[in-house]
């Protein structure tokens, strides 16, 4: 719902700019099809005025024109996480996914190659793949029967005699995403061919993804345990990376965890002490590019013995521990056991690795978002270890879990509250006076600080606005 007038971009003239008047980004990493208005700079960009150092305008969550620009510039203009290669382990396996508004197919072709193809028939545009997941050698369009190989090539049209000699099947393949790259089995794609390599996009976040991958013996993840999805009536930017809310939104869960911590069992033990307390040593971290982390590493390392004890009394646990120490330096293996494959990382804009899941965020409209959660198993770990991971996932994030439903509820209340737009500014200043820069360049704050929110907004502005508008804000 567009309920806020945007601030004037030319205060001296009192002129009101609409976001559709925005200058298009000149940065090649942004959507290539936007039209740049010559001569516009930072002072002419209303979006630059919506993000202040410690506050943001609620139009970012409610304005439909801004939402459309986000689709163009962030979701259609940058890297997105698409899926994990283990989901399509065999030739012909596919998964239907979204890139912003654009439907795509993640598929492993008969040639073994992983592709991301636009899910749009080259005849008159119908989706050629309507199933969420499957395995086939071909995609056959339901509308008029054009048939594509799982490598994307058009292999036949119905009634070929109706097409002239100049019609070439080879010119009507399913359109591939402009770029597809992997980071250790995590498949990313972009509709913009000018994006930097995905490893550069990930930057310091890559090492945090390793916390999940290396926790699997041999580094082999299995993302084939199904998924659970939820939709909430709120803006996509509300999801995740907030360490300030659990003591309130999840108060009852935290008290349950405290009781379980005494027993040394399951999830409670991994949250010994309150990791979200005002006296916690847990941190928030901003790696740049909008990638942020609720950083429990120091906290959990204090409790490595408890995690090890849980593993040791789980069937296959001793072998699991031995495998990690055989494969990695002792310090890193200690860290892997302490973190239990939970990086708690947000990769801007649509990927989160939280607890035992890979999470994809799909914006549907300015006030509706879909979240899909894929529990991750370790291919070479025992059935009991994987069962423990699944039970942990279900207990908080599952459809009957104790946590995610409360998160969705609070996101909806936020969205409703933002409609009160007389005073439109949202405060994200917590911890600005005490955040610090680590040796790797990441910005660090207390677990309850809004370091992630500020980091995400910096990236949001960098992707939405011309570079000269954000030269001081981005890092
Ligand atoms: S739209 Fe696909 S065959 Fe006609
Ligand atoms: Fe939460």
Characterize this entry briefly.
It comes from Novosphingobium marinum. Residues 1-48 are annotated as: Disordered. The protein is an alpha+beta fold and 475 residues long.
Overall description:
The protein is an alpha+beta fold and 475 residues long. It folds into two domains: 83-190, 3-layer Sandwich (Rieske Iron-sulfur Protein), CATH 2.102.10.10; 203-462, Naphthalene 1,2-dioxygenase Alpha Subunit, Chain A, domain 1. The protein is 27% helix and 21% strand. The strands form six sheets. It has a nine-stranded antiparallel β-sheet, with helices on both faces. The longest helix is centred in the last third of the chain and has 15 residues, at 383-397. It is globular and about 75 Å long. It starts with 54 loop residues before the first strand and ends in an 11-residue tail after the last helix. The model is unreliable at 1-43 and 469-475 (pLDDT under 50). Bound molecules: FE2/S2 (inorganic) cluster (FES) and fe (ii) ion. Residues 121, 123-126, 141, 143-146 line the site of FE2/S2 (inorganic) cluster.
CATH level-four homologous superfamily name of the largest domain: Naphthalene 1,2-dioxygenase Alpha Subunit, Chain A, domain 1
What compounds are bound to the protein? Answer: FE2/S2 (inorganic) cluster, fe (ii) ion
The CATH topology name of the largest domain reads: Naphthalene 1,2-dioxygenase Alpha Subunit, Chain A, domain 1
- For the secondary structure, the number of strands is 23
**Which percent range describes the beta-strand content?**
15-25%
Radius of gyration: 23 Å
Shape summary: globular
Judged by helices, strands and strand pairing, the structural class is: alpha+beta
Query: Which residues form runs of ≥5 with pLDDT under 50?
Result: 1-43, 469-475
| Physical arrangement of strands within the biggest beta sheet | 13-19-18-17-16-15-14-23-22
Average of pLDDT: 88
Main sheet summary: 9 strands, antiparallel
* Percent helix: 25-40%
Family: Belongs to the bacterial ring-hydroxylating dioxygenase alpha subunit family.
GO molecular function: 2 iron, 2 sulfur cluster binding; dioxygenase activity; iron ion binding
Pfam families: Rieske (PF00355), Ring_hydroxyl_A (PF00848)
Protein name: Phenylpropionate dioxygenase-like ring-hydroxylating dioxygenase large terminal subunit
